[in-house]
Amino acid sequence: MKQIIILIVTIAIIAGLYIYLEKKDYPVSKTFSVNENFDKIFLSDMQEQSVILSKNKNGKWVLNNSENIRPDAIKILINTIKKVRVKTSVPKAQRENIYKKISSENIKVEIYNKDNKLITYYVGGPTNDYEGTYFFDDKSKDIYITHIPGFTGYLTPRYFVDKEIWKDRTIINYDKDQISSLSIHYYNKDTTSFTLETTPLNIDVNDKKIDLNNIDLKKVNLYLNGFSKLEIEGFENNYIKKDSILNSPEFCRLTLTDKNKKHTDLKLFKMPINKRSKLQYNKDGKALKYDLDRLFVDINNGKDFGILQLYVFNRVLVKP
Known about the structure:
By secondary structure, this protein is α+β, with helices and mostly antiparallel strands. 22% of the residues lie in helices and 34% in strands.
């Protein structure tokens, strides 16, 4: 009788262990991290969007072989590619459902070094606790739960495909000694416009020359220093009302020329009040017509269209 009881208990333990192991996430030897040098990353999604992030001949990362990349975004992605680790495999009971999800929505990742493909994998969504990310391995055709040790969260947002988000948001970046001339023209008749030339120094206010004896040169230098690393909030080239905004009256125009005769031309437009506007009413309780914190901007005569924040650009959008 005692032996029968021991046998039953043993069978129960084995059965319980089998069920536990079937449900448990267990570590595997598969790796997705790339530790060798790589110089190109290809990302694509199910909506047929794709981007190529690659190093140019100067070793600088660029977008689609031509445009500057947001430094913060590429730094985070490279760090992810190097540090991502397999946390566990996917329990058998969940694999079919997870496979269906990742088949219908994923981001394909290809990583190259000198046109030699190093790895291909597909990034899916987060685990239920949002502390892991499903990766599908192109070679083994299996799904794994990945993470970065020490990081809490999931990794999918780091592999975005929208080129508008990848583009560097810095639209003006000049040292004061690089600037040859600039002008700010306000279309409101009550606001004074001016032009400034640096070599030699010359300032016109409403087309009238200013006596330089009345100019504080320290303030001029401080002002010119403000034209370094001016970033917009984001690009809005696909904004549905873009044409309407471009056909509306301009708020002001900023034109800047550097010592190499390169021109930067910004046309600024008031932004109609919207759900994202922080202030919806004035101090008298009347609904505002325009956003007080942001403007639309046309960059270099239609090359790009975006939104800028006044707390960033107010340092250069000054009165004389």
